[in-house]
Design a protein that fits this description.
Blueprint (H helix, E strand, L loop, with lengths): L1 H20 L4 H45 L7 H12 L10 E10 L5 E14 L2 E7 L20 E12 L11 E9 L10 H4 L10
Antiparallel strand pairs: 1-2, 1-4, 2-3, 4-5
Length: 213
C-alpha cells in the first residue's frame, strides 16, 4: 500500500512538472492579453488625433467668419452673411460639417469700456448638393446685450466683429470616445474698411454706427 501511494505521488509530481514545462498556447494567451491594450492605444490615438485636428479647424472657422465679415466695405446683407458662414465652414472639410453652427455679432465698446451687442446673426452650415451652404437663424444675442470681451480689446468708442462657432465631434469608430465631444471657439476682428459694419436687413437701420441705446 505504501508503495502504491509513493507511485501515485510520483505520477502527480511528474504531471505537475510536465504541466509547468509545457509552453504550448503561451503565444495565444499573450496575444489575447495584449490585443485589447493595443486596440485601445491604436483607436485612442486615431480618435484623439482627429479631435485635435477638428479643434484646430474650428479655430480657423471662427477667425474666418469674423474676418470675412470685417472686410465688408460698410454693410452686409443676408446673402453676404450666408456666403461668409458657408465659406468659413468649408474649412472643416473633409470632416463632416454637421453639426456646425456659428454666430457673428457686431459689438460697440462705449466710453466706459462696456461692450454691447449692436446686431447678431447665427447660422448652421451643412453640405447641400456637394457644397457648403448656410441657413440663417435667430441669434441667442439681442441688441444691447452685454458681451464679454478680452481686456486688451476694450478700446472706448470702437466696434468689433465677434464670431462664435460650436461643433460636436463624433468619432467614427467610437472605441475609446463613446459619446460626442462638444467643442467651441471664438474670434474678434475690427472692421477693415469702415468704422463699423451695417446690417440693415437685420436691424432695420442703415446706420448701426450709431450705438444701440
Amino acid at each position: 500500500m505504501r508503495k502504491s501511494l509513493l507511485s501515485s505521488t510520483w505520477r502527480v509530481r511528474r504531471k505537475i512538472g510536465d504541466l509547468v514545462r509545457d509552453c504550448r498556447g503561451v503565444a495565444a494567451v499573450e496575444f489575447a492579453m495584449i490585443v485589447p491594450i493595443m486596440l485601445v492605444l491604436f483607436f485612442g490615438t486615431v480618435e484623439l488625433s482627429s479631435a485635435i485636428a477638428i479643434k484646430r479647424k474650428l479655430a480657423l472657422v471662427a477667425h474666418a467668419a469674423s474676418d470675412l465679415t470685417s472686410q465688408s466695405l460698410d454693410s452686409v446683407k443676408n446673402t453676404d452673411m450666408q456666403n461668409a458662414f458657408a465659406s468659413s465652414g468649408a474649412i472643416m472639410l473633409p470632416y463632416s460639417l454637421t453639426p456646425l453652427s456659428a454666430t457673428v455679432s457686431e459689438i460697440f465698446i462705449d466710453k466706459n469700456k462696456i461692450a454691447k451687442i449692436q446686431w447678431s446673426q447665427s447660422a448652421t452650415v451643412a453640405m447641400v448638393s456637394g457644397s457648403p451652404q448656410a441657413a440663417l437663424m435667430a441669434s441667442p444675442h439681442k441688441p444691447n446685450d452685454t458681451a464679454t470681451v478680452p481686456e486688451g480689446l476694450l478700446i472706448p468708442n470702437t466696434w468689433l466683429i465677434w464670431s462664435e462657432v460650436s461643433y460636436t465631434y463624433t468619432p467614427t469608430v467610437g472605441y475609446v470616445l463613446k459619446t460626442g465631444l462638444p467643442m467651441d471657439d471664438e474670434a474678434y476682428t475690427r472692421p477693415r474698411h469702415s468704422t463699423c459694419v451695417d446690417y440693415p436687413q437685420l436691424t432695420g437701420s442703415s446706420n448701426s454706427c450709431t450705438p444701440v441705446s
